[in-house]
Amino acid sequence: MAEERRIILITGGVGGIGQAICRAFGEKGDFVIALDIDKDRGMDWEKSFLAKGYQGAFQYYDLEDAEGIGSLVQSWNTMVGTVDILINNAGIGGFTSLDDLTVENWDHVLNVNLRSMVFLAKECAEGMKKKKCGRIINISSTRYTMSEPGSEAYAASKGGIAALTHALAVSLANTGITVNCISPGWIENCNYETLRQIDHTQHPAGRVGRPDDIARLCIFLSDPQNGFITGENMVIDGGMTRKMIYVD
């Protein structure tokens, strides 16, 4: 018997890691909603995605607008069915030196990277509760545990995502919804073939990561049989955050 089609909402879905996640679910026959702020790229993504025989649609949305998230989710619930899996992947960098950091800079990064996840999870969970099943996956970063200059807002947002994940998992306990986090390390989205040998060999795994590495874990965590995994933050970085590094 064929598996029932699921509705997958993926933010930041038309490029990089998000695009790989969309493709992975498309290959499984799920209906994929790729939400992104890049209209032109989104329309091109939709044409290409449908041309491959996958099911889905592009949705333009600015995640800084938290007030409209409820209406957005409800519209998709009505048009194609209740969202079964939410993957909060969208994020912006916005590195700014501490001397130049403003309230506007800080709020923009935190609103897009963190606040949007809270309210998307809140709205999507309402429909998932009715089915007594659902998956929420938040994409953080290894920057939640290590930093470089000028990354205050970004690091804070990624740390917030890791903490938000276990809070949501406990709040949604006994509803059939699991909430987990993935923290990627170096994932090369564009020019993998131009990487240097040292880029690869400095990783204990022997290579730099690819978007598909993240997509495969999303598929695993979304499996209905993996309901015993919740509240976790899974690092995928080729072992780099476990490697002790000193300058000779």
Structure description:
41% of the residues lie in helices and 16% in strands. It is α/β, with parallel strands linked by helices and 248 residues long. Strands 3-2-1-4-5-6-7 form a seven-stranded parallel β-sheet, with helices on both faces. Strand 4, helix 4 and strand 5 form a beta-alpha-beta unit.
Topology, element by element:
Layout: E1 7-11, H1 16-27, E2 31-36, H2 39-51, E3 55-60, H3 69-79, E4 85-88, H4 103-131, E5 134-139, H5 152-171, E6 177-184, H6 197-201, H7 211-222, E7 233-236
Parallel strand pairs: 1-2, 1-4, 2-3, 4-5, 5-6, 6-7
Helix pairs in contact: 1-7, 3-4, 4-5
User: Would you list the SSEs in sequence order as H and E?
Assistant: EHEHEHEHEHEHHE
Using only C-alpha atoms, the radius of gyration works out to 18 Å
Could you give the distance between the termini? 60 Å
Low-confidence stretches: none
Into which percent range does the helicity of residues fall? Answer: 40-55%
Shape: globular
Please describe the biggest sheet, giving its number of strands, its sense, and whether it closes into a barrel: 7 strands, parallel
Can you list the strand order of the major beta sheet?
A: 3-2-1-4-5-6-7
Please state the structural category: alpha/beta
Number of strands: 7
